[in-house]
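Q: How would the structure tokens look for this protein?
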Amino acid sequence: MENTLTRPAAMTTGRPNRLVDLLLADRHSLGLSIALHLVPGALIVAAYLFLAEPFVKAIDYPVFLAWAIALVIVLAPLMFGLLWLGRVRTGRYTLRSVAHYRDRPIGRGKIIALIAGLIVWMTVVSLALVPLDNFVFDNFFTWIPFEGAGGSATTYIDGYSHSQLVVTMLICLPLTGFTLPLIEEYYFRGFLLPRIAHLRRGAPVLNTVLFSVYHFWAPWTVLSKVIFLFPAVWLVWRKHDIRISIGMHPGTCLLMATIGTIAIILGVTP
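A: Here is the predicted structure in token form.
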């Protein structure tokens, strides 16, 4: 008799798991894709308001740490969910057959050049568009209740001691600087983008816009995010190589977070 305990979960039942089949389908409907793009952002805001912010304020640390905690609360289970979908399909926890664009069709030299250029692009353009972010915030989003909203990138850490800032940045560096952006890339570019590829050129546009809107905690940055993220998303869709956006997004975040952490440790921040 065959041991059903060793088979993938989807094979142990006599009927297909409708939710799993829907999520792992080659195509997502427009409504489903919009929901899968935006619901995690809403959950991150909820995790911040009801869990992370009260905890961080109770220990008197910068709210930047609260946002890192909120992101972990949502994105860590989201990553596990992708691995679980892999287990349902293959019998083991894996991203294979779940996250696509991982076959590495671009040669090593070309991918390094692309990533380097995109890191420069994202760094320069995101900094250049800070005045746009400030304009949008000042004219449309001053009602946002989050502490530290708007202004410069340091508003989330202003007003705390040097030791508190150092501890906060050292905790957040591996999270917001690399791990969390990496999860976002596997989810948004590896899992969601390929499943709206039937929209053709509309796929990278929709993915970029929805990913930018997903950042509900900073809606005044949607326009600038669309501008500096789109080239990488388009190239991932065009070349079928997720390493492009992984190199740019987590790569740039790690670069900027490392520079910021070193600056705080050395006390050279404004």
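The chain has ten helices and no strands.

The chain has one domain: 30-266.

Upvote if useful.
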